[in-house]
């Protein structure tokens, strides 16, 4: 592990720059990939005007309004809304306000073209024009997107900030610590995030030069955390995102590990005492360390000590002397226990990170950005761009290898050009970034691509395709980087790092050779990736490389929504059903369009595709879908739902693609609430063994405080600190009270038959008609089944009498599947998945009002018939109106494709939800651990190690 501070030297930068420029050759020749000569990309698409009105889903207030914005017809409502609200510049309502996607793309792309021409990237004006048109076409058709700061700042009067990821440095001095606070604040003010390693700060077990004891890094974390929280609450566009790292051999490592776990205990105690501990609540500010992700930087030495059950030394920061010797396995258990309790800390594997470091002669990699995908030198930054993989999927299930290669060339060229004109929050970051030119090309929609091609996410074939695509992307990026070095010069720090850079390139190429492709698609991609690595390394040996880093896998939150991606980054699909906004307002529940495409690729005929999609729309999963083979279930496994991917499946996917990424992967491995500390240990240990650079876990419901409260707090019920003792007594006294039924109560008995099994259901109610008691009779008295039914009836009855709502039981027990199942003799419930499914559907029909049953999708036969009649009448009215129109005033819309026709809206009214996460909660009947959006109030969805709002595009991270 690191023994002292390493600092980057600027020695030789000027000389290196002059040498590389002298060696440069003629500019790049650019060929057309997507565009047609003589036709501007804007002229190839149909445009339309839309009104963008964004409301807070919780209270209906209008957050944003801009009418008459211009977008291609093919762009979804969501994508257009996000671009309008997030990326259009100029004050709303003024002439300076952007109103068309054309203006936005031109503002950015023309800036890139001009800079490229000024810095000698192109062989001539014709090449520059083709470059401009190709980028325009790709952005217009959602083939790729730059990261958000590019859209915010490029081509405006603001500083031309293009980077989303920053790494800072802190030394063991008060001046350096105060500079850290200031630099971090400037980055947060711009809506970006940063990371820092505090291990150079001496521990609380070491002495100051004055003779006193040092405060230690954890104490300085408090000040930085308060600063981040203040800037966040001061009106930033999103929460301040930050990463704090400490080396495992730091004497204060255990205190660091326990910081957030202890704060979670505090939240629990204060919440139980009556304080408002919701995120954004009036009392949450008393909780510390909540504005950062924490990670421990572990070494191979430490992990081997854990493996062998040995001891490990904690060393002083000033002289490297041993301060304390600890049990390695005990510290590893403490780390895993804390992560189990509150999801922090994550792990960063130091030796693996630095083994893949292209610039070790300049300094070690000590830290990362908040989402852990950018890992490079201190005081540096990285700008990102991501490709939409689904745009390269052919109709026959093949992959557009040649177009992918050419697209990577164009994007990586544009990203490098941006460094030529970019501004940076501090001069130190600007110097390092210009000298090393770190880039982060990546992708989105991997999960959708795998499903569409019939590859389970957690499978050898799925990992083979993912590894092949990732290798091809990074190999092509570095090959173009080597070509750029021949045109405009290698990065300034290359000369002193030439040998280690070449060594890392050879490691990537060797990892590519080790891929075992499964299937023709993966084989074709690996073949081309091998070619790219071979050519790139040959060119690089001669010219060097333009960039010290080329690729990362970022969360792709907001830009993923801008590109209408079903999945973000390296993630699988969240679920099979999703929430879709409609033009003109409103929304509907649909089955992801990847599903019918996957079914067709698996060979299912159209009739079966429609039946399976209908089943998914009703049930939210593929289990027992009509005609679907059980061996194909795994293709449709998702991050959440009845068939969710196991935690180790996520780790294995990360391990498959990590050798082909310059940086790392933004991803949190979600674990069920039932996961144990031992399972967390296993995940962290396997991450090290499999060669990951960074890993974080999140156990469902491990956070005590809720993200936000949906209901407003009533001021008269607020608790003052002086009333804590009194409040605690009241809280302890509040217990559910059993409301017993009167001696004489109304009841009714229903005889039923499910799949040939007969029984009786007796339901008794209170005088005010609320259900209070249930008795079930099946089989003979004294049999096991009869006893189980009696016990179950008592448990349900007591729950009802203690105030458990009937709809809670209905949401939990309907759709439960086991034998006996099948036809019933009840005209309102013709089919039942089990006896429990039938019983609680019957109780819902008898005791719940229509509005609540509608949310649960439970209707009587008459109600279903009325719905069908209403739909038929609506369709008839539309047909009559169309026939009455003697001359159409608009060009007729094209008939929907077969994929669009399969898009299924459930017959039942969709539950009142505002995002796919909330829809998933309604379908599954379980709560998802995700924060509510500060802007529009909807529940966000995971995106890498961050969250993104589908409604307005806000993110909780730094992408």
TrEMBL record:
Domain (TSCPD): residue spans on this chain: 742-845
KW Disulfide bond (keyword) present: yes
One Pfam short name: TSCPD
Domain of life assignment: Bacteria
Organism per entry: Plantactinospora endophytica
Segments forming domain Ribonucleotide reductase class II vitamin B12-dependent N-terminal: 52-142
Domain Ribonucleotide reductase large subunit C-terminal intervals: 163-698
Region forming the signal peptide: none
Enzyme Commission code: 1.17.4.1
Designated name of the protein: Vitamin B12-dependent ribonucleotide reductase
Positions of region (Disordered): 1-21
Disulfide bond is among the record's keywords: yes
Swiss-Prot/TrEMBL catalytic activity: a 2'-deoxyribonucleoside 5'-diphosphate + [thioredoxin]-disulfide + H2O = a ribonucleoside 5'-diphosphate + [thioredoxin]-dithiol
Name of the top EC class for this enzyme: oxidoreductase
Cofactor(s) the protein requires to work: adenosylcob(III)alamin
Record keywords: Cobalamin, Cobalt, Disulfide bond, DNA synthesis, Nucleotide-binding, Oxidoreductase
InterPro entries: RdRp_reductase_class-2, RNR_2_N, RNR_lg_C, RNR_NrdJ/NrdZ, TSCPD_dom
